[in-house]
Amino acid sequence: MTEKRADYLTWDEYFMGVAFLSAKRSKDPNTQVGACIVSGDNKILSMGYNGFPKGCSDDEFPWAREGDDPTQTKYFYSTHGEMNAILNYRGGSLEGAKLYVSLFPCNECAKAIIQAGIRTVVYDSDKYANTPSVIASKRMFDAAGVRYYKYTRSNREMKLIL
To answer: Catalytic pick from 3, 60, 66, 82?
Structure first.
């Protein structure tokens, strides 16, 4: 063969694939979210997935989505994938970085994304688009000049053998 392969992954496929793979680490029984932060020159800076903070046992804290007592649901304890990716980064500034995430960020993650200096968000699912949280996220992203766009799936089948 004298020419390069033509069927290699695009950068978006590669980094969203890393976000999807990160989501597989989540122990949340309902929603698994992964995130991957990338530099302007396409280097992976950090990754994260949704789960409980260090030292908070996922066997002792609740995974429930609903309940009479909100302290017995996951929402007060779980850290989102985007937030974990930001908090996991140890290299200094994320100014100008791009975030790949499997689910559109909530308003709390949007604040952290903006404050961290991330300039682009690539997301796969926007299933909560009509919720106040995501409406607020998009309003803040628009005001802060954070570009966001939906990942375009290639429907290429990829198999990982582990």
So the answer is: 82
Q: How many CB atoms lie within 10 A of CB 26?
A: 21
> pLDDT tens digits for the chain (162 residues)?
688 888 889 999 999 999 999 999 999 999 999 999 999 999 999 999 999 999 999 999 999 999 999 999 999 999 999 999 999 999 889 999 999 999 999 999 999 999 999 999 999 999 999 999 999 999 999 999 999 999 999 888 878 787
Q: Is 82 a catalytic residue?
A: yes
Residue with tokens 């766009």: 149
Q: Which pTM was predicted? A: 0.94
- Alpha-carbon distance 138 to 107, whole Å? 8
